[in-house]
Design a protein that fits this description.
six-stranded antiparallel β-sheet, mainly beta, 275 residues, 1 helix
């Protein structure tokens, strides 16, 4: 009997420990504090119990899918979120806005027929975009699989088939065109999909003047190629620019460039999160 009682007591304690519903004397962990120091430059204390929690955003069901707060630009079904500018026979803009002329085929857009702009305007934002150039694309250097994303219609993040295709460093995929080369060349061979994930920080303005430049962080196929890189001014071919002249709005459309590739660059799964 002396051996049985300790055994039964031990068994009961073990069962109690294994039962998640069993009551314990443990106090719940605090959800915040009110007696901690104030964070420098902030009105909030460390672990402040009154500090608002960030909103909930549901991720996409699979990698690359748009999250719940994204603005979908192209989902494989419609290009209605894009528009173009009509040109006359001489290639001069008429001032008329027209629907995006790019062909929609098998859930992809074929970038052919001129540049297109988002109908909505954006400042700071996160962009996801997937694109592919064909293996038998004609040309070399900047004339092979070339396109680009222009944030605020001014600052280009280059898209180019630069896998085994020599070109100037500040014109490769992931470059701030004409300014900063990518940290590495992360481009897959032509015929495979390239994935762009970009965080763009718009310039800070005061009375219409730029007081802080734009910045960009870029991932190509999951590899960081720009890390909060300063954008020196609007990007131009064979030119150096700054913020001392020109107009700089708080928001503007994003432009996707048609560089007249043959066959055209393909585009899919484009979405944006304003920030």
């Amino acid at each position: 009997m002396k051996l049985i009682l300790p055994f039964l007591l031990l068994a009961a304690l073990s069962a109690r420990a294994a039962d998640p519903k069993a009551k314990t004397d443990e106090k719940p962990s605090p959800t915040g504090y009110s007696d901690t120091p104030v964070i420098p430059g902030s009105k909030w204390k460390v672990h402040d119990i009154d500090r608002p929690a960030p909103p909930v955003v549901s991720p996409g069901e699979k990698p690359g899918a748009p999250p719940s707060d994204a603005i979908v630009i192209f989902d494989g079904k419609s290009s209605d979120a894009l528009q173009a500018k009509e040109k006359d026979a001489k290639g001069k803009e008429t001032g008329k806005i027209i629907p995006c002329p790019w062909e929609l085929k098998d859930g992809e857009l074929l970038i052919k027929g001129g540049d297109c702009w988002t109908k909505q305007e954006f400042g700071s934002c996160q962009l996801h975009l997937e694109w592919m150039s064909e293996p038998h694309t004609k040309g070399n250097s900047q004339k092979k699989g070339n396109a680009g994303v222009f944030f605020m219609d001014r600052y280009e993040s280059q898209m180019l088939d630069c896998h085994n295709n020599p070109t100037y460093a500040d014109g490769m995929t992931g470059s701030v065109y004409g300014q900063t080369p990518p940290l590495v060349n992360a481009v897959r061979p032509a015929g495979q999909w390239q994935v762009y994930d970009i965080v763009f920080t718009a310039p800070k303005l005061e009375n219409g003047k730029v007081v802080e430049p734009a910045y960009i962080t870029t991932f190509v196929n999951g590899i960081c190629v720009q890390n909060h890189t300063k954008i020196m001014g609007p990007t131009k071919h064979k030119q150096v620019t700054d913020y001392n002249s020109g107009e700089f709005p708080e928001k503007a459309p994003i432009r996707i460039q048609d560089h007249k590739n043959e066959p055209p660059v393909r585009l899919r799964n484009v979405w944006i999160r304003p920030m």
